[in-house]
């Protein structure tokens, strides 16, 4: 006897749910742990930079005091040798001050960590958007994102919802790039929010760009 199967029955229909709640919870937990690790590393780097800056300040002050002692000295010394020492000390002071300026202009990061950003991202999570990689740069003043979505219209709304939070109110998100995932009929769109460099392309050294390069090597998606 020939058996017939009705593929229109619900139990034979493919599962079209893009993201399950359990998957979202697992992804959120992974993201939370990554951000916690990044926060501790940033705090450690900040402490090291602050200590280096303070040490250089003390050294510069010591050199200035030494220079002043030479200038105020009334004892008989070799004038040429004294001039050479003064020139050397001035050069050392200038070099130290330049180093201090470089350290001071570096973005030391957010010494309070990124817990507020984590809370804001959890609060504004979107069922239609799955984040794969994110990068918090410049002490929390710039954010790059990589992920997939089932609706391109949801991305601007998602960014606006993040910017409505105090943690992201003054944060930049870069340039948005969207293209279909290289799978026929999947319905997914790959998106990238990344900082462009001077030539207009995405920054090559960021975590976001490394993700794009991996996609190029493995799937040939990005041109």
What features would you describe in this structure?
The chain has two domains: 19-111; 114-218, Alpha-Beta Plaits (2-Layer Sandwich). The protein has a four-stranded antiparallel beta sheet. With 223 residues, the chain is of the alpha+beta class. The model is unreliable at 198-208 and 218-223 (pLDDT under 50). The longest helix is centred in the N-terminal third of the chain and has 52 residues, at 21-72. It contains five helices and four strands. The radius of gyration is 28 Å and the shape is rod-shaped.
Main sheet overview? 4 strands, antiparallel
Approximate shape: rod-shaped
Distance separating the two termini: 54 Å
Q: Helical amount among residues, as a percent range? A: 40-55%
Structural class: alpha+beta
CATH architecture of the largest domain: 2-Layer Sandwich
Strand order of the largest sheet: 1-2-4-3
| Count of individual domains | 2
From the alpha carbons, calculate the radius of gyration and give it in angstroms.
Answer: 28 Å
The CATH class of the largest domain is Alpha Beta
Helices, by number, come to 5
Low-confidence stretches: 198-208, 218-223
CATH topology of the largest domain: Alpha-Beta Plaits
Topology:
Layout: H1 21-72, H2 79-105, H3 115-123, E1 129-137, E2 142-149, H4 154-163, E3 175-180, E4 189-194, H5 207-218
Helix pairs in contact: 1-2
């Amino acid at each position: 006897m020939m058996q017939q199967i009705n593929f229109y029955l619900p139990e034979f229909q493919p599962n079209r749910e893009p993201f399950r709640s359990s998957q979202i919870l697992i992804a959120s937990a992974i993201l939370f742990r990554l951000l916690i690790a990044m926060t501790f590393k940033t705090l450690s780097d900040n402490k090291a930079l602050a200590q280096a800056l303070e040490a250089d300040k003390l050294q510069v002050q010591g050199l200035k005091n030494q220079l002043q002692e030479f200038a105020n000295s009334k004892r008989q010394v070799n004038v040429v040798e004294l001039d050479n020492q003064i020139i050397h000390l001035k050069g050392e002071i200038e070099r130290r001050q330049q180093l201090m300026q470089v350290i001071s202009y570096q973005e030391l990061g957010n010494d309070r960590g990124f817990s507020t950003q984590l809370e804001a991202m959890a609060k504004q999570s979107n069922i239609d958007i799955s984040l794969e990689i994110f990068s918090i740069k410049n002490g929390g003043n710039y954010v790059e994102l990589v992920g997939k979505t089932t609706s391109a219209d949801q991305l601007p709304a998602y960014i606006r919802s993040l910017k409505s939070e105090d943690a992201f109110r003054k944060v930049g998100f870069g340039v948005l790039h969207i293209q279909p995932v290289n799978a026929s009929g999947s319905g997914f769109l790959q998106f990238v929010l990344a900082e462009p460099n001077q030539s207009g392309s995405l920054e090559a050294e960021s975590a976001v760009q490394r993700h794009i390069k991996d996609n190029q090597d493995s799937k040939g998606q990005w041109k």
